[in-house]
Amino acid sequence: MKKELEEYSSTRTKNQKIDSIEAMQAVLDSMPELKRKSVNISKHVTLTGEISKLVGERQLMDVSRLEQEIAAKESKAEHFKALMELLSQNYDKFDKLRLVLLFSLRYEHDTQSVYMLKEKLRGQGLPQVFFGDD
After folding, report:
1. pTM for this one?
2. Is the dihedral of CA 47, 89, 63, 101 positive or negative?
3. Model pLDDT for residues 26-84, shown as the tens digit of each residue
């Protein structure tokens, strides 16, 4: 995206030096390409801005960090503690559910910890349908 923006800026600057009929024709010939690049850059900047906004609003960097920790590192007690803390904070309920599911898959034999995490989610109003039969 940065490269495209630099190319677009460079092309616009070059096109401002119109000192002959040939230069005018070259500018007119490049207009559709400039318009296409402008629209493309604008679209990418808008999408990047929206993604950045969602990442910030949902605190997805924190959620992702814990997901990576649970998936890649064997440390049940540390993961349980971090997950209980995260469940006590203001995160999206489906992000919380996803983390509990990941923990449950990773440490499925620790039924007591899994049960405690599920109860914590239930206490926050997550519908029973997400928990299945105990």
Report:
1. 0.68
2. negative
3. 766 767 777 777 788 888 889 989 999 999 999 999 999 999 999 999 999 999 999 99
3-state secondary structure of 91: coil
Contact between 103 and 70 under an 8 Å Cβ cutoff? The reply is yes
Which amino acid is it at 24?
M
What's the token pair of residue 8?
């677009």
Q: How many helices (H) and strands (E) does the chain have?
A: 6, 0
The pair of three-digit structure tokens given for residue 87, joined into one six-digit string: 């469940």
Please state the φ and ψ torsions of residue 122, each to the nearest 5 degrees. -60, -40
Give the helix ranges, DSSP H, for 58-127: 60-72, 76-87, 93-106, 111-123
Start-to-end Cα distance in the chain: 49
Residues across the chain: 134
Q: How far is it, in rounded angstroms, from Cα 10 to Cα 96?
A: 46
Q: What is the pLDDT of residues 31-43, one digit of tens each?
A: 777 777 778 888 8
